[in-house]
Amino acid sequence: MKTKNIYTIILFFTCALLSACKEDFLDRKPDDQVDAEQVFTRYNKTNQLITDLYDNAKGSNSPLVFFSHFSTAPVTDEAEGSTAEGSLTNKFNNGDWNANVMPAGSSRGQYWWDLYGRIRKANVILEGVRKYNTPDNPLQAGDLNKRLGETYFLRAYFHFLAARMYGEVVYVTHTINPSDPMDFKQESFHSIASKIYQDCDSAMALVPASWGGADFGRIDKGACLGLKAIVAWMAATPMWNGGSFPNDTRQFASEYTYNADRWNTAKIAAKAVIDFKVDGRQRYSLYQGHDASDFRDDAGVDNNNSKVPARLWDMYHSMEAFQNEAIFFVTRDKDNNWQGDIYPPSWGGSSRQMPVQEQVDEYEYIAPDGFGYPVYAARAKKDGYDDTNPYESVKRDPRFHRDVIYHGATFKGKVINTASGPDKVGATNSTTTGYFLRKILRESWNRDKSFSISGPPVWRLPEFMYIYCEAVNETAGPNAEIYDMLNTVRKRSFMAPIPVAAMTSKALMDEYIKRERRVELFYENNRIWASRLYLEPSSPKEIAKEQAWQSAGTTNDQRSQNVWPYPKAQRMINGMKPVEDPAGKIVVDGKTYKMQRYFIESRVFVAPRHYLFPIMQDELQRTPTLKQNPGW
Fold first, then answer.
1. Rounded Cα distance, 156 and 303, in Å
2. Which of 174, 200, 471, 524 is 20 to 30 A from 434 in CA distance terms?
3. Of the candidates 613, 67, 66, the residue with the CA atom closest to the CA atom of residue 330
């Protein structure tokens, strides 16, 4: 055979293996054994396959662009999406998706067919290395084992992503040929979790404790511990552990009755991440760069009226911050074009994703007694909180100023005006909620250069601290240990501590843990999953809030102004707009304003249908043994 033909065959095999096109994991042509041998008898070819599998993992779970050009935030009560890109996220919110079609352009490799195509790639690699006895890296002994460890992790990771979206899925540990019986069976979430743990343990035995230099960010033992902890937390939450799942037709519903041991498992797994040491030193720690007096942006200039501490900006841009607390992350998630889309129109942007009032209300204020409380607390008005001047009447959590641009905020040295001009609420390409997104942005960028950003890590240390605190609270009740741990995260952000009453109230501690998770992990691809895992849209507490809201006033705007906190049922969002008022406390461009709440839109969230994503109908037709998720 001519050399040219050999390389053509190898290229064809590699392209087929790594195709990003829609592939069904049950519908494959037999692998050509000669072609496979050409690949797996060469370390460099095998190495490239695993490197490309990393890229697949990035596409399947990119925090900033999970739905192609949008994050998951606009399909939750964190944000609203614009009508750009075919109004993609609004289609989710309108219920315009089903088991026959997902919104066009939304796929980045996160759906059933892509995930199982990528799981198959991992299995082809693992089997190919065993079958053809792939040689080690001739330049660095031991590299092959590390690469195999990474592949075990990625197989577990893709199954985790599948279970997160679809619940009861199939765990595939071998390649599937067309001649194989098409009788694949789904498993319970807890069975899937156990198999993820096993793959993570296989990976941990092969990957290093940590990577340094140019290899930083590759899968290490800490990432394996992190995946196990995240899955253990999911297994302990109400969706899979005793919650009231409406019209529950899941195949293994009988396995989801409450079991306190699942919280113990989550506690141990989270603590393993928190306490993980490398060479006798703590591997992970909260980033502590800069002090409370430093408000300079990445160009070393205070252009935010001393509202955004430099430390909080650095958390998403400093390599030191990533080295300290990123458990697993994907690199170069987006670039300056993404930021340009997010910018307010006054800076040439199109406000693609805008925070909503439901999220803004979760940022606490610092009371005269030195503790933090929600702005909707009974004591807030007495402490000085004024809903017509919500951003300055009391001192808000510094993370609020880092995350959200509001009427009267100083952004890039200029005061933002949402009452008039290009940034006016409802103007072309402007905000529809009264807010613009600030989190993750590079403040110094003036459309004068190109850059790329990694975005928030997939998992970072605070998430595991919250899991641990919640698990302790669930199993033993509140105590000083978890009180101090939560306050450590708050102190890092220059936020006041939780009131001491939380140490004696399980319910109050739970409230603070969940609010902390929501604030700290805002816009980090967390809320969409947490709201479902806790079954919030069908919670009696949230439904009661929803009913109270519906009963108050005669218009939606009146209800929005008079009844809050808003329900977390994912069926509506609200905003805040400036209204000229001689007695207003907010002065922008020489005019005085008060802020006023208003209703934006109703959304579709039907329980149980929208708790889990639908398996596509063509997948069910190919494999009749698969069962559709409840409600679809």
1. 44
2. 524
3. 66
